[in-house]
Design brief:
This protein is mainly alpha-helical and about 130 residues long. Helix content is about 80%, strand content about 0%. Keywords: Membrane, Transmembrane, Transmembrane helix.
């Protein structure tokens, strides 16, 4: 149940941040922003928060989440018919905003002890605090 709550928090925050950058900034339709949010939230939660973060540290996990955000936003924006250049700039801005959020979100995950390693305590908890 803790994963559902954490994923909902991440999803809502991602939706708000992406709507500001993509919806208000670029004029992207809400439906597109919502679908990008779903893909990005689930993908970055699994890859960045559950796999990469427990094995590395907050900086590496944040960088990987930012890189994933850039790729997903850029490619999905192109698929929705936006120009490559406009989407590249917008995806860089959105990925930077998402990176700031992810840095603090990883602290939340550490406090909730989600993504424990086999020893029963998160390897990365002390690295974040």
């Amino acid at each position: 149940m803790e994963h559902v709550k954490t994923l909902l928090i991440k999803g809502v925050a991602t939706l708000v941040l992406l709507y500001v950058v993509l919806g208000l900034g670029l004029g992207m339709a809400f439906e597109y922003v919502l679908f990008i949010t779903l893909v990005l939230s689930i993908g970055s939660y699994i890859a960045g928060d559950l796999i990469i973060l427990p094995k590395t540290n907050n900086k590496i996990a944040t960088a990987s989440d930012g890189g994933l955000a850039f790729i997903v936003i850029w490619l999905m924006g192109i698929a929705y018919g936006y120009s490559i250049g406009a989407m590249a700039i917008t995806a860089i801005v959105a990925a930077a905003v998402m990176g700031v959020f992810e840095f603090f979100f990883h602290s939340y995950i550490a406090k909730k002890e989600i993504g424990r390693n086999g020893s029963g305590s998160p390897k990365w908890k002390t690295e974040i605090e």
